[in-house]
Amino acid sequence: MSVLHNIVAIAAREFVVRVRTRSFIFGTIILMFGAGIVAFVPVIVSYLDRTDTQKVAVFVDAPQAPGDLVSTLGLLLNATPDTGQASATTTQHFQVSTVASLDAARTAVTRGTLAAVLAVGRGADGELAFTLYTNDNATGRTAQLVQQAIASITVGDRLVRLGVDQARQAGLFAPPGYAVAWADAARTDQPGNTMSLVAGSLLGFGMTVLIFMMIILYGTWVAMSVVEEKSSRVMEVVLNAVTPFQLLTGKVLGVGAVAFTQYLALLAAGIAALLLQGAVASAVLGSGGSDLPQGLTIPMLIIFGIYGVLGFLLYAVLFAAAGSLVSRQEDVNQAVMPMTMVSTAGYLVAVYAATGILDARSGWLIALSQVPFVSPFMMLSRITGGNVSPIEIAVSIGILVLAIGGSLWFAARVYAAGVLLYGQRPGLRATWRLIRQGT
To answer: Could you say which of 82, 130, 215, 258 is the most buried, measured as most Cβ atoms within 10 Å of its Cβ?
Structure first.
């Protein structure tokens, strides 16, 4: 019972000292504010997108112009990519109107009142001729959308001149039946659109970055705490009351509790923002509302917390062991370099997989995601991409827990050897001998 009491006492002291620092308090407040902003990103983007309406004017100088060019051009420019047609609820990105003077319209474009003006004429061969006057480049979004729209208008005009009336043209231009499905027959969900894929990639990227920062930041805290006590000779007094194993475990759990407290604060801020998102979207955007970010769910946040805590525990015990081998603050970075390089490598591979640079479905990445030193990064990238089964998640968590136990046993022996050596940095042979002896 005294062993548990000593571990809890050390962990409590480490926790209290860390959470009272100004860096922790202000850092947590800033991170909570950032979590709220991230949760409201869809509302912010929808609001900015809603207010960004481009005004395009049409100047018609063509005999026997086909139908109502203004209405036709407006429908084509505001058509949705999924259906190819605009609806009453579709956000109107373009407002199209007609002008009587081309010179006046071009002046308005120059001043910024209009985004562009489209001059419609007819050539000697009877074909429609279009000229777009704009301040943007020729390959900009507005120019490309207008080019696609006038292609449809030109085809319709040609059909009219060939004797095909408007009623028959409606059937000709009706969109065909079209569907997209997964190649894997076992998948019954619908493939997401580009925005959902981008959202999933950004979510995996963001969570991977947060876990990497958590491991490096709090792992370094553990190593620095060990060196501080060792350099001030406080550890000599502490070791008279507790064993090196108890000291190591207490420090890791204490700093881990600090990390978990900060994560709970972020989780609370994120959930509160998500719950308020619908009401805020209705108040700001009206009846249109806003959708939650794809993949940003409470179960996903819980999985992120599990991998974050386990990943921290795995690396923290090794950071503490590395810190015990040096006696000066200046040597900490060099001592923890091996763990930093391994975690950085896992972080980079996970980021490349999350952003699509590497195929997360490839065999070597699937196998790598079960390796405990990189699984906290890799599994999150695969989960947000929808490329992992619940069994794989359970297996990776089990392997990670076993790895933490093995690392704790190894780190305790290194720690016991390192904290008892002052004024010298033990070589590999001396360290290995002390580890084998268990001192």
So the answer is: 215
Q: How far is CA 84 from CA 79, 193, 285, 307, in A?
A: 5, 15, 24, 42
Structure token pair of residue 167: 């009623």
pLDDT the model gives residue 379: 85
Question: Token pair 């503490």 is at which residue?
Answer: 320
On whether both 263 and 377 belong to a single domain, the answer is: yes
What's the CA gap between 105 and 134, in Å, rounded?
10
C-alpha 1/C-alpha 6 separation (Å) is 9
Residue 179 is assigned to a structural domain of this protein: no
Q: Angle, nearest 10°, between helix axes 337-354 and 298-324?
A: 160
User: Running along the chain, 439 residues long, what does each successive block of 10 average in pLDDT?
Assistant: 78 84 83 75 63 78 72 75 46 79 89 86 83 81 82 80 70 67 65 54 70 82 76 61 75 82 80 75 59 60 83 86 76 82 86 77 84 87 76 91 86 70 56 56
> Are β-strands 128-134 and 116-122 bridged in parallel, bridged antiparallel, or unpaired?
antiparallel
Q: How many domains does the chain have?
A: 2
187 within a domain of the structure (yes/no): no
pLDDT value for 290: 45
pLDDT at 210 (0 to 100): 78
**Is the four-CA dihedral 379, 383, 387, 393 of positive or negative sign?**
positive
Same domain, 62 and 34: no
